[in-house]
Specification:
It contains 6 helices and no strands. With 136 residues, the protein is mainly alpha-helical. It has one domain.
């Protein structure tokens, strides 16, 4: 069984996908995942670190866990044993989701280019000839 090929991140099709991703409403956790309001800023930072179309449902569950861990880090004393444990857990979750610095800003090639294109599309207000797509 062969894997379907991903679109090249430097193609016109990838640019269109990035703009379509950026125009959609923010990604929400799966309905069976409870995410407290104080974790939402972390959730948003996590799910916008990767191109929208690369997230799977199981990734979103892990992202919710990571958001909870990052919120918990805000509440524990810096340098304490609990802080170290939570930091290690957050780093492990970031690696498993490919939202760590190497994956988002380094050389994780296509995913990095897709994420960069989507971030750029989110910030692009369009021009007179090419209006920006907006979520309704």
């Amino acid at each position: 069984m062969t894997k379907p090929r991903r679109t090249r991140s430097d193609s016109a099709k990838a640019a269109v996908q990035a703009h379509q991703n950026a125009a959609q409403a923010p990604i929400e956790p799966p309905v069976y995942v409870t995410l407290p309001d104080e974790c939402r800023p972390f959730w948003q930072a996590i799910v916008t670190s990767r191109a929208r179309d690369t997230w799977t449902e199981s990734d979103l569950v892990t992202a919710a866990n990571m958001a909870r861990v990052q919120q918990a880090l805000q509440e524990v004393a810096i340098g304490g044993d609990e802080h170290v444990k939570l930091t290690r857990l957050a780093l492990a979750l970031a690696r498993s989701l490919s939202v760590h610095v190497t994956a988002t800003a380094g050389r994780a090639a296509d995913m990095v280019n897709a994420s960069t294109a989507e971030r750029s599309a989110r910030q692009d207000d369009g021009d007179e000839l090419i209006p920006r797509l907006r979520a309704v």
